[in-house]
Amino acid sequence: MIIDKTNPHIHAIGQRAESRVLSALSTLPAPWQFFSTVEWRLLQRHGESIGEVDVVVFHPAHGLVVFEIKAGEVEVRNGSWFYGSGLPMKQSPMAQARRNRYALQEKLRHRLGAGVDTLMVTHAVWFPEITWKAAAPMEIPSRHFLLDRNALKDPESALLALLREAAPNGPAWSRSQQQALKELLAPDCHLLVPLSVQVDATLDKLHQATEQQMSVLRMLRSQSRLLVEGGAGTGKTLLACTLAREHAAQGKSVLLTCFNKQLANHLAACLADCPEVQVTNFHELVHQMATQAGLPYEIIDNPEQRARFFREGAPELLLNASELLDVRFDTLIVDEAMDFASTWWIALSALGRDNFSWYCFYDRQQAIYQHGSTWETPFTAAPMQLETNLRNPQPIGEFAANIAHYPPPAAFRVQSGSKPITLRAPDFATMAEQLRTLLNELTLKDNIALEQIVVLSPYRMENVKSAWRTGLSQVKTSSDMATPSTGKIRVGTIQGFKGLEADVVILVGIDANAAKHLDWLYIGASRARAVLYLLALEEFSNLPE
After folding, report:
1. What pTM was estimated for this model as a whole?
2. What is the average pLDDT across 203-227?
3. What is the fold of 411-537?
């Protein structure tokens, strides 16, 4: 229908006429359907064509009618059409309906192929505000193709008469053809943002520093000794690296140490351009200095004796080596300090020059190697508190805290994000299939790169409890947890990934025994920067959903 939309009066008249037709059509029983105000666009040789169908009426057993609706009075003189005001129409209503019909057929042809040409599709005109008493113009094949206000009373009879005359034996529309028509005229669109895009958006937000971090950094710069306490993801490691870099820039010799070997490798990579900073995990530091001092460093096979050596013998060996070597540091920085026994502090302090600076970063909730209630700081000081979680979106951060019954962080840099997903399985064989399916979805459907994914378990891959590992058979894996490798998924233990992080974390192999180590699950879950999955046996009942 051609309406001068710049004229509010004419536009209102047109809407009134269409409303009368739509009201009548709404009384049609199933399976009749109608679609109003259908806009279309076609790209053809001569360029783009656009148009708008007033209403399309459809019955799967009889066919489809494209209607042009005209409001008010009309007049036909010498084959030309005029409005009641005497203004000539640019095009006859039937020509407009025909143009829209062919455009619709062309659109359907793109979806259904040449088979659409056998389907009954026709066009007609409707004058809902007048009673047509004259003969039908020549371009209208019969009076049934011209509906007036009388058709409003019984639209089904009028439509059936039209369709039966247009194609008395027309084929019924198949289900696939009906669905194609519905998708063309009234599509259902629920387009999800790809997970890879969600991950990128989350990471962009997480990379912004907080004023709280800046405040702690200013305090670190002004004090020679400071304790910094904060939950998982509050930026402790980032501050430790920043501080080490700043002290090195001032010409100071710096030792940055931690317990976890993989974390030490990660820190060393971050500070590779600062040779003044020595980065090593505690036991490797003991090994290096004992070797330099000519002292034996022997790891005993007996598990109990080996554990005693790492806990008690190693710090004593470091203290002896420091007395024989002239190795001293201006600054000592300890990350994940909760992993250090109180006896280690004495050995470490022996490596400091006179008036050396000492900074310790820790989280009491991540004490998996020392008992949190008896752990001691290396010196007495009121700790600076980090309270804003910068690593995890709020759904993941709160989930991690709930696992271990810890209080959630006071604030999150990112409040929205993907909710953690828990998949349960009756056995590890089923879990392996879940893992395989999940990895396929993440990499093939969601466009997540393999190197963005880390698979963590409470047990080593070689452990008999790790029967789920067959779920990794279709992907390349890496045991280097500190450094992502292109095209490979990092696989390791939760304990070995402590202090590190990844865009997508999958915790797998979670069984009833994990209930005894909820702190492990807290650490594992809090490693996820954007997406978290837990694959647990059904026997493990105390996971939050």
Report:
1. 0.59
2. 72
3. Rossmann fold (3.40.50)
